[in-house]
Design brief:
The protein has about 475 residues and is mainly α. The protein has helices at about 15-35, 45-50, 55-80, 85-105, 110-125, 125-135, 140-170, 175-180, 180-195, 210-230, 235-260, 275-305, 310-315, 315-335, 340-355, 365-390, 400-425, 435, 440-455.
Length: about 475
Amino acid sequence: MTATTASPAPPTLSARRRWTVLAVCCLSMFLVGLDTTVVNVGLPAIGHGLGIDTRGLEWIVDAYTLVLASLLISSGALADRFGRRRVFQCGLAVFGAASLLCALAPSAGVLVAARALQGVGASMLSPVALAIVVNAMPDPRERAQAIGIWASVFGLSMAAGPVTGGALLSGFDWRALFWINAPVVAAALLLSAVFVPESRAPRARRLDLPGQVLLTLLLATVVGVLIEGPRIGWTSPAALAAYAGAALVAAGFVWVEFRRSEPLMDPRLFVRPVFGAAVVGAVGVFVALSTTLLLSTLYLQHTRGWTPLAAGAATLPLALGAIVCAPWSGRMAGRTGPRLPLMLAGGFLTAGGLCLVGLTPDTSVFLLLTAYALIGIGFGFANAPITNTAVNGLPPDRAGVAGAITSTARQLGSALGIALAGGLVAAAGPAGLAHASRPGWILVAGCGALLLLVARVSRPKEAGAAAA
């Protein structure tokens, strides 16, 4: 795949130029991660402004993550074929235009469609930017250091979203959550034109259009039925038809991928226990994060009556935990292998979820902040070793495939977490929301336990540094 494919003769860049390329690409990565979570704290304000219920708010979040998850691998293949800088700049332009559409959206339908378009642009940024960084840094040690920074920026962007959103909402309305992207996109476009060299893969992969269509349809059907299930009824004819449709699409996807010479996602990779466990772990980590952010936003603003700024500030322990532990985890995984940081990630996530399984409208602020800190620490420890485990679970020439699939798994986890958490509290009023959210905190703890199982499967010592 594209994420770590290098051109046969990458241009020789000065040290300053190489690290400038990294900074430009990290800026785009920060945008992608931030827009996955920044909207969460603004959901009550968006719902009030556009008259949207909880189910509609779930679609506003998941329209972005679903499209992003579906297109990551194909976007990387396009970049290998047509030029990574070109596709990267196209992604920035699409993302910026979609952000403006979000800011101007007059209705829920327009906002959901614009968020989906944002996902299209974001899919051209994440894997492509990483490929640009790898191509610009031929020295393995320097490359490992750059990828560690990349992992830290990604974790920081996801965790910083609620805090940033709360700060924006304290002085502006919800549309500021999208206006803020415009100057960042403009700066990234200018800097990429000046500093980022063009590169292509020596042999571009073929696009797997049947696989792409089936993967998108499968993800949309699964997440859609999770969001709409409480409304239509889990055993209604529509729900049963959706279950059957998802099963047929999944079977069709596997059948098609087994018969493609260059499949979008080769099912044979998942028979390797180490790789399969890492992908499942990636889904679990982001289910836990997105569940935490959505339940916390709704609980703090609806049940406790906190302002968006206060609700965003409450997640600062989560952001700080991720910021501190992400680079530490990368160094630890590179030195001793992924098992220890994965065990720490699983333990902290489990402890954080268990702290809130008895959540009430009057739960102490100290307990809330402690739980968020534990979850943030677990999230920070998880990212680098999961990718390390996935990459080392395949032969070296499939490292790019491993990175792309784990990136897809992360976004799928985000979408599933929003759908599951939203389904738990969709029908709950402010007084009953705390009780209704308790299964969600059990889910967070369960994701931590899942990481402990992934740690058991992972090898205690792996060669190489952790990836992002």
